[in-house]
Amino acid sequence: MNAKLKLFLKFLGYACAIFVIFGPISSIVLWSLAQKWYWPHLFPQELGLFYWQKVLGGNIMHSLALSFYIAILVTLLTLLFTVPMSYLLARYKIPAKGLILTLFLLPQAFPQLPVFTNAMVLLYRWDLVGTMPGVVLIHLVGALVYSVWTLVSVFRSIPIALEEAAINVGASKLRVFFTIALPNAIPGIIAASLLVFLYSLDEFTGTLLIGSPFITTMPIYMYKTAMGYEMQVAAITALLLMLPGLLLLFLIEKYLKSQYLATFGRG
Amino acid sequence: MTSVRTRIAGMALFVPAIFILSVLFVYPFFRSFIGSFRVNNHWGLQNYLTVMDLYKGDILYTLAISLASLLILLIFAIILGGFLRLKQNTVLEFLFKIPLFIPFVVVGHAMRVFLAPHGTLNAVLAALGLVNLQNPPSLAFSATGIVIALTWKNLSFALLMMMGAFRSIDDSYIEASYNMGAKSLRTIVSVLMPMAKGAIAVSAVLIFTSMIGSFSIPIMLGAGNGPQMAMVDLYYQIVYQNNYGAANALGVISYLLSMGAAIYYLRMVTTHER
Question: N or C: which end of chain A has fewer CB within 10 A?
């Protein structure tokens, strides 16, 4: 193959890849700036920030704040419930360990919607549908599973020799956890919490069922505006919604091992 | 050695997570089985008959869409993953990680506008002379649109799985293949692919399951009339018909279609925890 052709093919490959990835995203960027866009025109007749100003001054800010509030709460609760537990699962002989791990696999293995509709019936009984606690609880289901998976593998990847040495010189098990295991696991725990945060921020199915009609998080707001053909508002919401994920990808891509990522992104 | 008190304290750490998961996942999961066999306070198969009557076509439609997306993804991931294994390219690798971090609803909406008759895709294709804009094809609210959106969203996952598998193959096999005179594509198809057979099968099962259970993309891109994917039917049964029996029967069918992934995960636990 001659050099020119090779260069051309390489260029073509990059162009295709960029179009495949950014093509769909570019459509929403365009819509977010379109002040006037009548078909059959291929590009908006008038571009501007009018809708951005309008949307950012409106009730989207409420949804944005609500989404962040829920996501932070879910992340904190998840860490509290799963960090010590994952350590125990990774290091100790636990009765019925197989059963516990299987329990934490179930939500990965089956479709969520049919299960969540039945969970909704239960939450109705406890008056939790349409409330914050209800939404936080339904987010926790996915978040806990995801966090346990990640954290068990994080704790397992820390060499056990360090902890054994500390035990040999007489450190208590509690002290070993706080002074050796926990500090070594911090990078993994940060990665896990960022991904749990993102999971909660993007969660749609559970929130649609459990949160309606009072809890309108960003994904729900986006869905409603898109279905109502409020094109510019939906586009702006979509852009705001994808920002945290992209930021995360750029910031910590190096530290995210592929096994953490592989279980992410189902819904 | 460990005192009873420490043991109890240890067990207490498991309680919140297990409680939440049991009450909000395991119990509802079993309830959907029970609910699917309940008809007006009696036991019976009526719900399944209703579902078969109403949704046989939609279940086949769901299978067809899932299989089509899966096939495209596997071909893409094996070829691109293979090339990236043979020749590292961090730019492409990074680029194809992006879809994983875009929320499902955003993908759904982006595809609605991207694939619309006067959307960006047709604009570009028209500029290349491939599409006539007087009579533009609309992919947005069709099976093709759903396949494109599901494929796009799963690009990263498929590629990550495949590259993980290919990276665990030793360089010496690749060198041997090159020494025998094989080109890159040949090396991918006859060396990397057969050696990663197991991993390819696992990825296929996991991707297929997530497609069967997909909800947000099909509900945003599905046509108003015509076939729907199973999860959309289920949602409408709950919201518009308030028919939990039929919804649960549809749910149980979706569980059965997901058995492949369940078996894989179960085997993973049993082999790892010996």
Answer: N
Residue B131 has pLDDT above 80, yes or no: no
- Ordered domains of chain B (ranges, CATH): 54-272 (1.10.3720.10)
Count A/B contacts: CB-CB distance under 8 Å. 261
**Looking up tokens 């998080």, which residue turns up?**
A217
Question: Does B103 reach chain A within 8 Å, measured CB to CB?
Answer: yes
Question: CA-to-CA distance for A96 and A101, rounded, in angstroms?
Answer: 9
- Residue B106 contacts A, CB cutoff 8 Å: yes
Contact A114 B251 (CB under 8 A): yes
- CA distance, residue A215 to nearest chain B CA (Å): 17
- pLDDT tens, B47-95? 899 889 899 999 999 999 999 999 999 999 999 999 898 888 888 988 9
Would the CB atoms of A238 and B126 count as touching at under 8 Å? no
User: What is the CA A157 to chain-centroid distance, rounded?
Assistant: 23
Distance CA B167, CA B156 (A): 16
Best CA proximity match to A144, nearest among B25, B17, B14: B17
CATH 1.10.3720.10 domain locations along chain A? 58-262
Of A28-42, A83-97, B99-113, B119-133, where does the model show the most confidence? B99-113
Q: Which of residues 32-51 of B touch A (CB under 8 A)?
A: 32, 35
pLDDT at A72 over 90: yes
Residue A94: strand, helix, or coil: coil
Residue that the structure tokens 């819904």 belong to: A267
CA–CA separation, A163 and A178 (whole Å): 11
Chain A's closest residue to B34, CA to CA, is A118
**CATH class, A58-262 region:** mainly alpha
Crossing angle of the two packed helices A132-157 and B4-21, in degrees rounded to 10: 130
Within 8 A of B102 by CB-CB distance, chain A residues are 25, 242, 245-246
Q: B210 to chain A: which residues are within 8 Å by CB?
A: 266
Of B233, B194, B230, which is closest to residue B211 (Cα–Cα)? B230
Q: Which residues pair with B42 in a beta bridge?
A: B39
Let me know: does A144 contact A74? Beta carbons within 8 Å: no
